[in-house]
Write a structure and sequence with these properties.
67 residues; elongated
Length: 67
């Protein structure tokens, strides 16, 4: 049943967009989408940072072991 929820058709997307337009209005909707986009990009950036920090830590430990 959960796999069926992942497949959203064109009709459903248009219906969701129409409801959002009615709820928030034409002026507020672009601001909401911009905020959503910034949130997603900061989430992606946050997911990449721990990996970079882990690599740096491993490199520092390796350098100290070589000294």
């Amino acid at each position: 049943m959960t796999t069926q929820l992942l497949f959203i058709g064109t009709t459903e997307l248009i219906l969701i967009a129409a409801i959002a337009l009615l709820l928030f209005g034409g002026k507020k909707l672009p601001e909401l989408m911009k905020g959503l986009g910034q949130g997603v990009s900061s989430f992606k950036k946050g997911m990449k940072e721990p990996v970079a920090e882990e690599k740096e830590t491993k490199e520092e430990v390796a350098e100290k072991d070589n000294d």
